[in-house]
Every structure is written in structure tokens, then in C-alpha cells.
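Comment thread on ticket #2218

A.B. wrote:
> Attaching the input chain for the structure job we discussed in standup.
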Amino acid sequence: MTSTTSAPGLDGAGPSAPPPAAAALPSRPEPLKGAQLALGTLALSLATFMNVLDSSIANVAIPAISGDVGVSPSQGTWVITSFGVANAISVPLTGWLTQRFGAVRLFTISVLLFVLTSWLCGFASSLETLVLFRVLQGLVAGPMIPLSQTLLLSSYPPSRAGVALALWGVTTLVAPVVGPLLGGWITDNISWPWIFYINVPVGLLSAAMTWSIYRSRETATRKLPIDSIGLALLVLWVGALQLMLDRGKELDWFASGEIITMAVLAVVSLAVFLVWELTEAHPVVDLRLFKRRNFAAGTVALSIAYGLFFGNVVLLPLWLQQWLGYTSTMAGMALAPVGIFAIVLTPLVGRKVGQWDPRMMATGAFAVFALVLWMRSQFTTDTNFVHILVPTLIQGAAMAFFFIPLTTITLSGLAPERIPAAAGLSNFVRITAGAMGTSIATTLWDNRASLHHAHLTEGLVQGQGTFALTLQNLQAAGLSHEQALAQINRLIDQQAYTRAADDIFLASSVLFLVLIVLIWLTKRPAAQAGGAAEASGAH
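C.D. wrote:
> Ran it. Output below, let me know if you need it in another format.
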């Protein structure tokens, strides 16, 4: 069986936990050699790169997409959250789908459907159709990353499993560096639909190469029962909760009948889902895993931290573009360095996680995340590009020492046959938390900005003091009375949204420190001389 207890990677803006289908291959075929090995690695890496790129590339394009389809930037974040939620729902199904259709066939179909839905996303002319196509894209993307690693590990001999994982990890770490830069450049110089169109040639090439090399290495298939009721309940409660979070601000929360309905639906369907999954013989997610202390504490710490991380990753470019006048390209440049230290340090973490205490490594990562977010909480409207860049650069080190150790803790002590279910459930919770973290961060940002705007204006009296002087100066510069008032309001909004962003950064920093407690509720996994590479090898 293949057990991936510490695979590095990125999903969206952060590294991903080991995939749920990593144990799907029932027996190890002969390793590939020569040109076939090189081309097979390239084909699988292209698919992974495309998938991860598509998650991070949209972050800097949200203001442009929002303006083009006529919605607010906070509504524009639905483009990100809809993909994340759909992806989270489809991930736990990867193991069942693999056994039903075969790893190679499922991977190839998933890539081709991802190409189709990417093409449809580019053609979307309204937010509703774009969100619909992003949901479809997220659903078909579920098996891609787990199966790319599964097939890659089957291509190498067990002794070179560490090399395979390192190649896979670097691919997924490079994508978040390239994503914001490429997304920003395309948005500024061509148009935002091309951030989706570029997947078409990459995906077609990947699918063609994969099928030609791996079709003779198809895995065995068998018909297994599917927990259709559990799946329906999962879709219902996750979908209702995400809709409530996405539309709450727009509809004035619980003053709206729609929001109340969504909240009741989410709570009731979640309760029924929990009871059903705990009593079902073949559950879509194995909730009994939460009885294990390491799995429960590790998954909760990883998921909350990922939600905080991803929410802030989406918030930063929105603030830069809306209130500091950054172009999409400049915002991308401010985000891109996050992968530099991650790329450099991930191989070290992969080697040492089996020897060092992963709880210490994760604690260090949380402390660095807290430092990074505290540094961002000091941003003002006068903060220059270099000062914005420094925390982003440091954050890469935290990413390397965060996901791999926490995943090692979460999956430690599990029997090999339980790892696919455990990794699938952990991934589901984490990706869902990322989507919800985005919605919560942008909602709180707007709410805090309104509060700061009220505080900033309560001392201003029309016709007196600084307000009157500023108004006179603006009118003397050629603005009409209405234009001068609008300019003053814009300046106040700029300060209010900057202070609100600082509030979110500071609160997130504190929460990262609090989460360290969860790490130390876990037991230290058994040390392994070979580190992650050995732990991740195929047996």
C-alpha cells in the first residue's frame, strides 16, 4: 500500500495534506524508466500545476471580475469560495471513484472535464454563470491532485519515493508563486477570462500524455456501495452554510428569511448527517476517526489555521487593489514571494519530520504565521511595497514547517487501510474551512470598515475645522462641492478599510498563537530514521 503521511504540496494558496486516494493502488506495477518516466512525471506535474494555479490565479483578478460582471468585490469572492466548497465535497469521493473506474481513467477524465469547465468559466458573462461553472470545476477537480501523486509514486521504485514526492511538492509550491504574477499580468494586459483559457492547452497536453503512458497500468476496478444519502446530506449542509456566509452581509443576515432558512437547513442537515454517518456501514466520510486524539486535534488545528491563512491571502490583494491603488500585476508581485522559502525549506522538512518532533515544527510555523500577521496589522495607507513584501517572504518559511508536520501528526498511528479515508476527511474539513475563512474574513472586513468609518466621521462637523479646510482646498483645486465631498469620503473609506484589514490581521495573529495549544494535545508520532521519504514510500 502507498501511505503518504507527509507529502508537501499546495492547494490554492497553501500546501495540501496527503491525498485521499494515495492508497488506491492495490499492487505496485513495475516502475517506469527513461523517457517514459520523465514524460510521465511531466504529464502528472502539469495537471497538478494547472489545478493549483487555478486556485491562486483568481485571487488578484477578483476586482477585475467583479467590475466586469457588475458586482461588489465581496460578491466576487464567491468565485473562490464556490470552487473551494465544491472541491471539498468531491475529495472524499476520490477513493470510491478510483475503485469504480480505475485510477488512470478517472484521472484522465478529471483533467479533460477540468479543461471543459475552465473554458466555460472564461465564457461566463454573469456572476451566476461563473459561480456555476466554478462549482462544476471544483467538483471535477477533486481527484486530480490525489491521483497525480498516486500515479507518480507508482512510476518510481520504492527507494526513490522521496524523489517522486519532492518533484510533486516543488510543482505544487511553484504554482502559487506563478499564479498571482501570471493572473495579475493577464488581467492587466489581456482580460480575466484568459486566466481560465490557459488551462485548455495545458490540460489537453497533460491528459494526452498521461493516457498514452499510463493506460496499460490501469488499476483494478470493482463495484462498491456508495453512501448516497450521506453524500446528499453532505452537499446540503455544506452548501447551505456556505450560501449563508456568502450572502449574509448582502441580505442583512438574520433580518432575512432566506438567511434564516439557510441557517436552519445547515444545522438540521448537519445533525442528520452526523447521526447517519456514524451508523452507516459504508460512510462517505468516516467520522469515527475523530475518536483518535491525534486525528481530531491535528485536523482541527490544520483546518482552522488554513481558514485563517486563506482568508488573509484573499483579503490582502483586495485591500491593495481597492484602497492602495495597486494594479493586478503589482498585487501579484506582492503575493508571489510566499513560495520562495517554501520551495527551499520543504525538502528539509520532508527529510527531518520523521526525526524531529513535528509538534515543535508546527509550533514554530504557527509562531511565524502570528509574527507575519502581526507585521501586517501595522500596515497603513502609506506603507510602501517593500514593507508589504517582507511578511509575504517570511510566510513561506511558515508554510514549509506547517502543513507537512501537522499532516504527519494527523495521520500518525493509523493502519494503512484507514489512511485514504483519514486523508480524505482531513482534506475535506481543511478545504471547507478555507472557503469559509474567505467568506468570514471579507464579511468581517466590511463590518469593521463600517465601524471605523463611523468613528472617523463622528468628530467631523460640516463647515468647521479640518473638514471645512479640506473641502475648501479641494474646491480650490477645481472640484465641485459634490466631487470634493466624494473625495473626502473616499479618503475616510481608505483609512477605515485599512484599519479594518489591520484588525483582521491582528485577530488572526492571536488565533494562531491560541491554536498552538491544540498541537500539544497530540502525542508525538514515532520517530523514523528515513524521515518523510521513508514514511511516504510504497510498501
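A.B. wrote:
> Thanks. Noting for the ticket: The longest helix spans residues 419-457.
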